[in-house]
Specification:
Helix content: 25-40%
Distance between the termini: 39 Å
Order of helices and strands: EEEHEHHEEEEEEEEHEHHEHHH
Shape: globular
Radius of gyration: 18 Å
Number of domains: 1
Largest sheet: 6 strands, mixed
Number of strands: 14
CATH architecture: 4-Layer Sandwich
Strand order of the largest sheet: 1-2-3-4-5-6
Strand content: 25-35%
Mean pLDDT: 98
CATH topology: Metallo-beta-lactamase, Chain A
Structural class: alpha/beta
Bound molecules: zinc ion, fe (iii) ion
Length: 257
């Protein structure tokens, strides 16, 4: 089983799993990176996972489905313009020798889902779309801060060795913000240097490791006193309620340059 990020558009990744001539892809916003990889590597695409309805995650699904006959899975509470098996929290399905679990993680969109699977001899894998990024989280377009905070808690509860497969290469700009929130966080500074080196070599910073995200990602750390204090310094009207802290942390990031 091999996990590969296929770059798409300017900063998307289409995640691909390959196993014995078969391939699964996640959120193919365009077809070309996938069809090129399949041709070069002589694999058959037979499964497509979709996390949410945005075009940069769905634009290539219909044509890949038509070309390959791949089975498509997607969120039960969103409307997608192709045939797919609708999934919600707790639903399980199999691909190759893996069993995937569905997690409801609304916030970025109203019906956003994520996919988690354990592997026999490798670290588990999470496909989380635009919910969790390395050092950050997705913008809250359709859901509420309370929902997004709950989504962060759902993902934080997964095993620490989980490989977090985010759909965008946003890491460096997220870490700039994270450093503004927690300037004294040493783990964050070390991770930032590591990621800067990867980007200098034009390598992906992903997958991220969940245990490391818990040390460096302010959106997974919104109950830490350092983060609460920073949010209150930025937005003095912030109350002691955790959802209020999280909401103001997210608004701070929205305008951060
Ligand atoms: Zn999105
Ligand atoms: Fe996206």
């Amino acid at each position: 089983m091999k996990l590969i990020p296929l770059p798409a558009f300017s900063d998307n990744y289409i995640w691909l799993l390959q196993h014995q001539g078969r391939a699964l892809v996640v959120d193919p916003g365009e077809t070309e990176p996938v069809t090129r990889w399949l041709a070069e590597n002589q694999h058959q695409l037979d499964c497509i996972l979709v996390t949410h309805h945005h075009g940069d995650h769905t634009g290539g699904v219909a044509s890949l489905q038509k070309q390959t006959g791949a089975k498509v899975y997607g969120p039960a509470s969103e409307k997608l313009p192709f045939d797919y098996q609708a999934l919600k929290q707790g639903d399980l399905f199999n691909w190759a020798d893996l069993t995937f679990q569905t997690l409801d993680v609304p916030g970025h969109t109203a019906g956003h889902i994520a996919y988690w699977t354990s592997l026999a001899l490798q670290d588990p894998i999470l496909f989380c779309g635009d919910t969790l990024f390395s050092g950050g989280c997705g913008r809250i377009f359709e859901g509420t801060p309370a929902q997004m905070l709950k989504a962060m808690d759902t993902l934080a509860a997964l095993p620490g060795n989980t490989r977090v497969c985010c759909a965008h290469e946003y890491t460096l700009s997220n870490l700039k913000f994270a450093r503004a929130v927690e300037p004294e966080n040493l783990a964050l500074q070390n991770y930032m240097h590591h990621c800067e080196e990867l980007r200098r070599q034009n390598l992906p910073t992903l997958p991220a490791q969940l245990a490391n995200e818990l040390k460096i990602n302010p959106f997974l750390r919104s109950r830490q006193s350092t983060v609460i204090q920073a949010v209150k310094a930025f937005a003095p009207q912030t109350s002691n309620q955790e959802v209020d802290v999280f909401a103001n942390l997210r608004s701070w990031k929205n305008d951060f340059r």
